Structures are given as structure tokens and as C-alpha cells.
Amino acid sequence: MENRDVARILRETAQLLEIDGAIIGRYRSYERAAELIDGLPESVASLASDPEKLTALPGIGDRMAEHIQEILKTGDYALRTKLLKKYPHTILDLLKLQSLGPKKVAVLWKTFKAGTVEQVEKLAREGKLRALDGFGEKSEQNILKAVAVFQKASGRFHLDVAQRVADEIIAHIRTLGRQIEDVQAAGSLRRSKETVGDLDLLVTMPESRNKPRDVAAVSDHILAFPAIEQVLARGENKVSFILSSGMQVDVRLLPPSEAGAALLYFTGSKEHNVTLRSRALKMGFTLNEYALSRLKDEKPVASRTEEDIYRKLGLAWIPPELRENTGEIEAAETGRLPHLITVKDIRGDLQMHTTASDGKNSILEMAQAAEALGHQYIAFTDHSKAVTVANGLDEKRLKAHIQAIRAAQKQIDGVRLLASCEVDILKDGSLDMDAEVLAELDVVLCSIHSYMNLDRAAMTDRMLAALENPYTQIIAHPTGRILLRREGFDYDMELILKTAHEHGVAMECNSHPERLDLRDTHLRMAKDALVKIVISTDAHSTSNLSLIEFGVRTARRGWIEPKDVLNTLRCDDLLAALRPKPGAAGPHQAAPARAGAKRPAIARRKSRQ
User: Fold this and answer.
1) Whose CA is closest to 485, among 218, 205, 194, 189?
2) Mean pLDDT of the chain
3) Is residue 466 located within the same domain as residue 385?
4) What is the spatial distance between Cα 192 and Cα 164, in angstroms, rounded to a whole number?
5) Radius of gyration of the chain (CA)
6) CA 197, CA 194: separation in Å to the nearest integer?
7) Whole-angstrom distance, CA of residue 304 vs CA of residue 262
8) Nearest-CA neighbor of 354 among 383, 377, 375?
9) pLDDT tens digit string along 258-297?
10) Separation between Cα atoms, residue 417 and residue 405, nearest integer Å
11) Do 354 and 252 belong to one domain?
12) Which of 210, 397, 415, 488 could covalently link to 393 via disulfide, CB atoms 3.0 to 4.6 Å apart?
């Protein structure tokens, strides 16, 4: 089992215990164990092979180690199973609603025996929740918004989860050796969509082995994949199944002569394919999943590779991430496709957390892991004091943290350590840190973690105030969205990006698969507004540092090139390109001001009229 699977079972046990009214110490022990395991750089299964290594982990005693061993052995946990006989399994879905926690779910169950999203939605629409302790009319509105997000996300999986599953199945198929020629993922995963529904995999078999008996043998092997829960279909050239996670997988078996056409067709998007087919017809061809063929005699003219098909249609090959029918075909025709960024272009990571706030690893451990990945520099951005749940730093602790970062630099030569802070943007748009301390930082990164339901005008004003603050250099996860759980903030993105450009503030593309924020469409807007981007991981452990891949993939969907991204620069060039703080020289020089200073809201609102 993966670490995340063990952590999920422990976390669900904690939530069910809290719903059941267990004492705080009991369910918190499961929460802490889940959090620890989720952030481990090594496999908990390998650690569990030596009980002493498992109990050596902080907070893991003999009893919790036994629970973990049980989960690894059986794939579940007896206490969780027992609680799910007392409460419906669907009660776990309620905990996915942004506005509900275990205590409120317990109230809903006790009062109404409401254990499904549909039941809670009905109660909220009928106005039956507002009189309950801890609820209100606003709570009902927030619940309805959360339900809408949940319903939209149903059956979707985060990009990293889909990629991991695809990699596991592909590795399983590749053990067939010469019986197959190639295996590729297609569909929304290949296009790096932020979430994925079904998986589409294409298996190319050598022409010499593309016989019924060989196809049957390959199908048998595919269907022996351990995580399959239900086989949906098995035909001459396709097998479909559902995994224990609920994800559907469709695997198509192809001859090499059709591989390119099939890859193009099943990669999509539907809109991209429709436009290509229309272009083909105008040029005297037909295009389908088998080949690009001449209309007059149906003779194939290209099918083995995507490049051949695009070339016959008078187009440069289009990277999968761009295939959304948003101008990529016109750009391919006229030689204006962007030179998309790659992971190799990234020189450093500008957001990560350590044990100083809510991270799992020390400064030195994060630095060593970043050096191993080839980073030239990293910024430590532990939370500021407003984020109390993340053990945020006040001014005194941040000053000490800066000194700790400077001291750690003396112990490592291969990567430059930058002192930073993820400074909270408060409700009025001021920053959660004194100017005196902000001036000591190498990089100032600002973000919102509170009052997320402000209306459009108020949230826009708040962001404008933060952008106008002369210490703000980067806005982290700018829309605050949590994929499959919470929509982004509602504000005037066009005005925010225009203002960011005017003040030289960069916008982050947060690489964590639960965020991917800014999203693809906003990244393209930022590029058009000449706003610089940083791609960072928001890592809370050494294992999170590799998530940079998913930020890069999202940036590619936004047509982002290396020249658009600040952390493709060498460290000194990066620091010079950031907005200068008060007292420094540079193109975006601002007059000195205290960190919390902002102009009146009425003036900001007037600027939008």
C-alpha cells in the first residue's frame, strides 16, 4: 500500500471517532499518525518490515504500530470497519464538503440522521439547518456551494494520483517484454488536465504478434493487474475495468500501423479533434482513430505517428497540453506555437515549509533533498503568525528562523538558501508581518488563508491592497482553490493581473496537485498581461519537492515558456528581477511604506470603474 492509502484509513478513523464522540486524545493520535505517514519520504510498508523502525517514528507507539501493521496486511482497519457499521459509509463524503467538519457532521447525524450529501443538500435548501448550534443562514449557503463542488468533482482524481496509477499499470504491461512494442497514456492525463476521470492506455503490439491468440494472452496479462475490482469489457482490441479506487481504465490493443492515429484520437480533446477533422475534410481527407485517408479512394496517407498526420494537414506537431482548441491549430499553421517550459528549465523552488511551522523536515533536510534534485536555490517560506493552525511565525520567531537559514547555508554548498516567509494577506489587505522584518527577507511571498468567502468586490479590494504594498513580491496560490474540494476566490482577475504587472509582482503556479493554482486559463491571462510566473511546490516534506513536475505541466497548458518564469533564471538574476523592496533600486521602485499600509477601499473601487 502507498503511504497516502495508509494515511487515508487512519485519517478516516480519526474523523469517525470524532463523529462518534470519542475523547480528543484518542482521535488526535490517529490524526497525528496520518499526518506523519503522509509526509514520510520513504515507504511506510518498508519501515513496517522492521517494527523498531516504525516505533522510532515520532508519535508512533507500540499500539499505533500494530494498527499500521494491520492496515498494511489487510488493506483496512477493524475499528474503521466497526464504525462504518454504525454510520453509513457515505458519511465520509460529508467530510469532503468544505464547510463541514466531524463535529458538525455529528450534529447533522444526531438531529436528522443525515448521512449523505443529498440529504444534507435537501436540508440546507429547505432552511432546516440555520437553527442548529454552530450553523446559520450563511452556513446553509456555504454548504450548498460545497455540495456543488463535490458533485462536479465526483468521479474525478487528482493529476498525480492518475499518473501514479497509469505508471503502475504501464509497468505491469511492460513486463510482457517483446510481446508489446509500446504503451502510452492518452486522454486527459496526457493533456495534463488538472483532474482526470477515466484512464485511456494504448498498447501497441508488433505486427508479427497481432494475432488473436497473442491478443488474448496480452489481455489475460493486463486483467491480472492486482488492483482490478471489476472487469467491464473484454473484446478483440480492448479491455476495460474498474480499480478498487473507483477509477475506470480502458486499454486498447493496436497494430503499429494505427498507433499514431489512435494516439491522436484518444488524446483529444474532443474540440481539438473536431477542428482537425474539419480541416482534413477541406483538404480532401478523412481523419479517424485508424488513419488520415484520402476522401476519393479512402487510401491511408498517414497513421503511424502523430507527426505524420499533423504534417499532412500542414501543421507542426502540437504538444498534447495545448490541444484544447484555443488557438493552437492556427499557431501550428503559422509557426507561432510557444516553446513550452520543461522541468529541466526550473533552477529553483520558491515555496516550501520546514519544522519551523507546519513542515515535516528541517532546513538542512529540505536543502539536501533540493540539491539532490539539482536545484540551484530554494526559498524557505514558513507561515506567518495569522495561520495559527500551521504554527505560524511571529516577528521574533521569523528573525530567529532567518538566522537559522543563514547558519544552514554554511553547511551546504550546492544550493543557495533564501530566507522567505509565506506572509498572510489579512482581511483588509495588509500583510501579517512588520516591515522591519520583511526588509530582512530575500523573498516576500504573500497569500490568503482566511475570510475566503468575501464577495467579489471585497476580495478584489483585498488583493489590490496586497499588490500595492511595496513589500509584496510574489502572490502564492493566488485563487486559493483546493481541487475537488473548494472553488477559487471570486475576484476581478483581469484587474488583479493588470495591477500585478504595474507593480512588478509575480504570480505563483503552485505545483501541489490539490492546488495547481494559478490554473491554465489564468496562466495564459497572466502571460498576455506580461505578469511573471514562479513555479513552486509548496512542499511540506522532502518527498513533496518532486511535485514541481505538475506545476510545469499546468504551466504548459497555459502556454507558458521559460522566459515567462522567474525561477528559470540564475539566483542573482532572479533576485534582481523580483520587485525591489523599499530602499532598493529597480524598475518597480515603490515609496517606503509600512507593511500594512494600503490606500482607501473607495479609491481602489473607483479604479475598477
Assistant:
1) 194
2) 91
3) yes
4) 13
5) 26
6) 10
7) 9
8) 383
9) 999 999 999 999 999 999 999 999 999 999 999 999 999 9
10) 7
11) no
12) 397
Please tell me what DSSP assigns to residue 561: -
Q: What is the pLDDT of residue 53?
A: 86
Q: Whole-model pTM?
A: 0.81
Q: Are 164 and 18 contained in the same domain?
A: no
Which residue range is the domain that position 202 belongs to?
158-334
**Backbone torsions φ then ψ of 258, nearest 5 degrees:** -110, 0
122-131 per-position pLDDT tens digit: 999 989 998 8
Write the DSSP assignment of 423-470 as a string of letters.
EEB-TTS-BSS-HHHHTT-S--EEE--S-TT--HHHHHHHHHHHHHST
Return d(Cα 278, Cα 296) in angstroms, integer.
Answer: 16
Task: Report in angstroms the alpha-carbon separations of 571 from 347, 369, 418, 423, 585.
Answer: 8, 18, 10, 21, 18
**DSSP conformation letters of 341-381:** --GGG--EE--B--TTTT-SS-HHHHHHHHHHTT-SEEEE-
Q: Is residue 598 part of a domain?
A: no
Element holding 215 (H helix, E strand): helix 212-222
Grid coordinates belonging to 376? 540551484
Angle between the 456-468 and 493-503 helix axes, to the nearest 10 degrees? 10
**Is there a domain that residue 492 lies in?**
yes
Cell of 126: 429547505
pLDDT, position 1: 76
Number of neighbouring beta carbons within 10 Å of residue 149? 19
Selected residue with higher pLDDT from 599 and 583: 583
Q: Is residue 121 part of a domain?
A: no
* Residue 598 scores a pLDDT above 70: no
**Burial (Cβ within 10 Å: 0-12, 13-18, ≥19) of residue 585:** exposed
CA 274/CA 260 separation, integer angstroms: 17
Name the amino acid, one letter, at 203: V
Query: Does 499 share its domain with 397?
Result: yes
Query: Which SS3 state, helix, strand or coil, does residue 603 take?
Result: helix
List the grid coordinates of 431: 500583510
Total residue length of the chain: 609
Q: How large is the average pLDDT for residues 491-520? A: 97
Contact by Cβ (8 Å): 232, 223? no
Does residue 352 share a domain with residue 477?
A: yes
Alpha carbon separation from 224 to 173, 181, 218, 229, 231 (Å, rounded): 10, 19, 10, 11, 11
Which H or E run includes 239?
Answer: strand 238-243
d(CA 221, CA 217): 6
328 and 440: one domain? no
Cβ 435 vs Cβ 466: under 8 Å: no
SS3 per-residue string spanning 72-128: HHHCCCHHHHHHHHHCCCCHHHHCCCCCCCHHHHHHHHHHHCCCCHHHHHHHHHCCC
Q: Based on the domain organization, do 233 and 369 belong to the same domain?
A: no
**215 in any annotated domain:** yes
| Four-CA torsion 74, 79, 84, 89, nearest 10 degrees | -60
Do residues 7 and 35 touch, judged by C-beta distance below 8 A? yes
